[in-house]
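Reply to dn_fold:

You asked what the input looked like. This is it:
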Amino acid sequence: MGYIGYVPVHVEIQVEIENKECKVMNLLEEQNICQFTVIDVRESSKGKIGHMVNIPRTQLDLIEGKIPFSVVHTGKEEASVWFESDGCDVCQTIIASDSFLVSGGCLGKDQVLYRFISPHPEAFQEIISKLDEKGFMPKVRKVEKYRSEGDVLTSKQRLVLWHALKAGFFEYPRKINTIELSKRLGMVPSTLSEITRRGFRRLLESHFQSDD
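and this is what came back:
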């Protein structure tokens, strides 16, 4: 279901889920690494799902050459490691509903707290409904709506910038170009460029304006 016609009203949601399908957590347990914490889960630029995990530094050799990963940071006792996978039903359900998967944290055995942002309450409700249908029994812990303070952007600017961000228009390299995005939004490229330019100007003016 798409939400092109909605003016984005960002909704931040925290949902606790028992997820036995998390591929990264299962891979680590298969390598006898039981002390780990999932500290971040998000969609990567390659269309995969990335997981940042803290594991004991002394256990890095247990996954060397067995699981593709990259080390983000190493401390005296822990190492932050980045994994990528095809993702599980939970991650894919969130991302497929026009929402941003912001982070995920391990609460205990198979218990994961997911935090994501949806463009509209209907998108959030669709995610919860689908997860419930798939048997995950999601427990919603927090729902908070965000609105633009002072109406910095017009409704059309908010709509265009939200979908541009969601589609990867601002990433490097871009996931979608101006022509493709303009077709998705039902407008000509010149109109899209003008709306984004004016929207950025409003945001920058609001950000850098003095308090006087």
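The first helix runs from residue 23 to 30.
Hope that clears it up.
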